[in-house]
Amino acid sequence: MARPTPLSTDEITEGLRGLPAWALADGAIRRTVTAPSFLAGIELVRRVAAVAEEMDHHPDIDIRWRRVTFALSTHDAGGITVLDLEQARAIDGLAAALTASDDA
C-alpha cells in the first residue's frame, strides 16, 4: 500500500478546522488530553495503541501523570498526511469516550 504524500500548509490548516483540540507545532499535529486519573490516561494510551496497530500508523506519545500528549506526523512521508488527520479524529473519539465513561 502506497503511503500518502505530505499535505500542504493550507491542507493541514483546513484539516485542523474540524479538530479544534489539535495544533500544528514542530512539524506535527499535537494534542494533550488530561485524563481523570493516571490509570485512565494509561487506558487511553492502550486504546490509541490498538487503533495505531490497525492503521499501521503510530503516534509519538508522552505521558506525564494524567496528561497524555499525542504528536502525529507520517515520518516516512516527511510530513503530515491524511493518515495523521484520520488518526487525530480517532484519538478525539477515544478521549471523548473515556471521559464520558468516567463521568458515568
From TrEMBL:
EC assignment: 4.2.1.96
Keywords tagged on the record: Lyase
Catalytic activity: (4aS,6R)-4a-hydroxy-L-erythro-5,6,7,8-tetrahydrobiopterin = (6R)-L-erythro-6,7-dihydrobiopterin + H2O
InterPro entries membership: PCD_sf (IPR036428), Pterin_deHydtase (IPR001533)
Superkingdom of origin: Bacteria
Gene Ontology annotations of biological process type: tetrahydrobiopterin biosynthetic process
GO terms assigned for molecular function: 4-alpha-hydroxytetrahydrobiopterin dehydratase activity
Pfam families from the UniProt entry: Pterin_4a (PF01329)
Family (UniProt): Belongs to the pterin-4-alpha-carbinolamine dehydratase family.
HAMAP family: Pterin_4_alpha
UniProt-recorded name of the protein: Putative pterin-4-alpha-carbinolamine dehydratase
Organism: Pseudofrankia inefficax (strain DSM 45817 / CECT 9037 / DDB 130130 / EuI1c) (Frankia inefficax)
